[in-house]
Amino acid sequence: MQWLRSLPRGTSRLVEQANPAAADLLRLCAFLDPDAIAEPLLTEGAHYLGEVLAPVVADPFAFNQAIEELLKFSLIRRNAERQVLSVHRLVQAVLKDAMPEEQQRQWAEHAVQMSAGRPSITCSRTRSSVPTS
Residue 97's domain spans which residues? Predict the structure, then answer.
C-alpha cells in the first residue's frame, strides 16, 4: 500500500510543475462527488476557488488546459458532452491522505463555498448537481 501513497505525490509533483491550477483542480475534486463533478458548478463558483485556480476556471481555454493535464495522467475522466468530470474514489482518498490537515480544511471549504446557496437540480443520467440559474 505504501507504493500507492507515493504514486499521487510523484504524479501531483509533475502536474504541479506543468500546471499549478490543474493540481489545485485535482485537490478540489478530492472533496466533491467523485462520480459527477459538474463543470458548470466549477465555472459558476470560480470566485471561491483561490488565487491560482479561480482565474483558470473562469477562462474556458485555461480551464480546458487544466483538465487536459489531469486527463494526460488519467487522474480524472471527462464526459465533455454532459460537462461532467469524475475522479476515482481511491485517487480522492490518497490525495486527502497526502494533504496536511490545514490544506484539507482549505479545499473542503472551497468546495462548500462554491456549491452553497445554489439552487440545483440533479441530473439522473449523471447524478450531477447542476445550478439552475
Answer: 2-131
